[in-house]
Structure formats: structure tokens, C-alpha cells
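Figure 2 data, in text form.
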Amino acid sequence: MSDRRKQEALNAPLDHRSPLVLDTRELGRRPGALKEFSRTVPAPGDLGIEVIGVPEGSPMELDLRLESVMEGVLVTGTARARLKGECVRCLEPLEQECEADFQEMFSYPDADDRSRFADTGDDAEDEETFQLEGDLLDLEPVLRDAVVLSLPLQPVCQEDCPGLCPRCGARLADDPGHDHNEAVDIRWAALEGLAGSMRDGEKDEDNAPRTAGDDPQEK
């Protein structure tokens, strides 16, 4: 997900009717409060890469755990979805299952800035943070990052897919014995025919009877 889109997601007002906007009111702000639930949501658009992804609107199953902590709400979850794409070797359509785990902190708007970052070293403050909007949080950018990062960069229909014939483009898995006889380019075939005619002409001349007048050394 681009930085611009992430920033837009952070700044845009949340719609409580969106299936990926979660309400945390039941948790309150008491550290240790938990809420676990599952839901099925339609996949947002552009949830994939060039060769494979989750079709927009297809069902995604989410198992979620919301935990109230001092800094905000810690969201832990697993997303499952059906992927569609094409094999990078034979270009045939394929379908696969996707499972992506994620965990993200959503800070209270009034939380101390220092508490918004996990203690991960000197680069911690460079990491992106998310905030609650009132009692609402938007799960879409977190879900998008988790799913896209879990996608195979080189999806194949089967591990031993032989791909396509480099000469004719035939799918080799459909014809394991696929082969080509050495074909001669018609342009070379024409030249070989001409060369053969010239050789035959030279042989005819060599085998022709000679007379005394034909001897080039006769004077």
C-alpha cells in the first residue's frame, strides 16, 4: 500500500457502517479487557499484485481479538480468503487459499506520543502508527498490508509445472511427450536445393566423355 493511500486512510473520517470499521466501545479503556469474534466481510478492491489477488467483493473470513491496553487497542487477527490469478509458468488460471496473520496497535487520540511506538530500537519512531477515531478503528489498511505481503510472488498451478514450449507455446503439462523434429527454415531449404543442383551439374561435367580437342593442354 502506498504511503499516500495509508495517509488518506489515516485521515479520512470513518464510516461505522463499513464492515472493516470496528467499534471498541464494549472494551472501554480498562487495560486487560478482551473481545474475540469472527466475521465474514467483502474483500476491498486492489487486494493483490499483478499476477494474483483476492477478487474485490469476494468473502474474507476474519478471526479477531481486540484487547484494551494502556496505549490503546491491540488488534490481533487472521484473515482467510480465496485467491485468483494465473500460473507464471504456463499462464493458466489458478485458485489458491490465502491465510494472513496480523497484529496492530491502535492508539487513543490522547495517548502520550512516546507510548505509541513499540520498543523496537532506534528505528521505532519511523514506523507508522494508527489511531482510534473516537471508539472506531479502520482495519482495512492493516488487513491490506498483511494479505498483500502473504501473497506468492511467483504463483504456480503446481510445484512441478513444466510451463510452455518455447517454440510453439503449447502447455507441456497437457502433452508430456511434446517434441519438435528439427525443422529447416524454408529459406535455407531453397539454398540447399540450389547447392545440390550445382553439385549435380559439376558431377555431370566431370563424367562427360572428352575428345582430343577438349584437352586444355593440347596445343
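Caption note: The beta strands are 21-23, 34-42, 47-48, 52-54, 59-68, 72-86, 93-107, 130-131, 136-138.
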